[in-house]
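Input record (one chain):
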Amino acid sequence: MIENLPPCPKCSCEYTYEMNALVVCPECGHEWVAAESGTEGGDAAGERVVKDSVGNVLQDGDSVVVVKALKVKGSPSGIKAGTKVRNIRLVDGTDGHDIDCRIDGFGAMQLKSSVIKKA
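The corresponding structure, as predicted from the sequence alone:
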């Protein structure tokens, strides 16, 4: 938790508040990610932390389980909840897809960390 929240970069409102990982301005509605002063220039410079749907930190090579049934374009069935995925790779994907993996029966695909949990 950030103790001294910065003012809004758009309207300079000083009444900003935290909402999950974002800082929000109540006057103009602008949302942004505020960098904590203690983490800048640390040992993980430039490295982002990816967490699963329950808050566990994920790393390359982890095994995960899909917690929500997913529709797959071009497939009559989707990926069922409870499907185990091994050897994931964390990537900077598009539209929040931050996990690269191979699922048996579907092939290579990207998943969002919000629909999986660490096995």
